[in-house]
Amino acid sequence: MTASNDIVRVGVLGAGAWAQFAHLPGWKRDPRCTIVAIADPIVERAREFAAQFEIPNVYATHEELIARTDIDVVDVCTPSATHFSLSCAALEAGKHVLCEKPVAYDFTETRRAAALAASKGLKTKLGFTFRYSPAMRYMKALIDEGYIGTPFIFNGYEQNSQWLDPQTPLRQVDHEADQTEIHVSSLEGYGAPIMDIGHLFMGSRFKSVVGTMKNFIPERMVRATGTMMRMNIDDGDIFIGEFDNGGIGSIQTSFVTVGNYPGIEARVYGSKGALICRLVEENGICETLKGATADSVEFKELEIPQRFYPAGGSARESWRSLFYANLIGSFISEIRGEVEGNEGNFEDGAHVQELINAVERSFRERRWVNIPLEQPPVAGSAS
């Protein structure tokens, strides 16, 4: 474990838009860390980011960065298909790992990565960005304090309209996949964060689910080809389920439903009260939280205490930098031993991925599916 007074030294893999607008600003914002190096196969792009964020070392390969002995944490911010191999390489080298979701398309591989980290005494964290929003942090604190009493029902939504227009190029899809069957897209890329929040707020995990997936817009522009193609992917889905603790829940995700970024809404209803958190940029505000109690049933907006914001943060900041600053701050505190535990880690990611795999199986087999899954997920879950 890094000592509490040590500066955490960071190496970043990937020089894409999400690194530029969320990851790198998050690391730069926290004085307890320093970015030592960045690597990307498009080395010119890595050099641009190095100049922008004052990063002293630039590499074209991940091997060169991971081999450095003066790096404590590797941040994997690369295309999804590379996450598992890069995370494992960093863990094998004795580095803590922050990885964008998913670690792997198969929950058993995510669990393997979690076990590798545990065997080496390393911390991991997944890019479950939205559990770290100030409003969500405050909502979790209220739940822990007993505001809602015993949780009964969770409703989660993750939706916006960024691919409602079929001319908007799709990214991270397999355009060579068999298009006679639907492939997972929104369920995984968009569903994971709200599934994670459902587990977090209910204090329990789904034990049984039934769901469906739908391809609403079949012809799309594909970034990899620059042409319109048949893309049989789920651009909308919904499922219901039962939690281990007796609660019930529903989750809907889509990237063709009208609404602004990031499009997250979490609702929890309990024996004493209810809370509704919306992470949607509207009228210059990126998050709101409302609460009601059994003796005051009209929902009223709750003010989010400043202690849940990163330094200099407010609800009028971009959600990208605001929420990710809290994620980075949480990971640094864990690595330095300033707080106990390791939230939002690869094991949490494995449970979310198992839920995704279960919903997909439910759709394909047209039945309720129990968790834990006894067999590997069906083929075709990677899209």
UniProtKB/TrEMBL annotation:
Keywords: Oxidoreductase. The keyword Phosphoprotein does not apply. Residues 8-125 form the Gfo/Idh/MocA-like oxidoreductase N-terminal domain. It comes from the Bacteria. GO terms for molecular function: nucleotide binding; oxidoreductase activity. Residues 137-275 form the GFO/IDH/MocA-like oxidoreductase domain. InterPro entries: Gfo/Idh/MocA-like_OxRdtase_N (IPR000683), Gfo/Idh/MocA_oxidrdct_glycsds (IPR050463), GFO_IDH_MocA-like_dom (IPR055170), NAD(P)-bd_dom_sf (IPR036291). The keyword Secreted does not apply. This is Gfo/Idh/MocA family oxidoreductase. It comes from Gemmatimonas groenlandica.
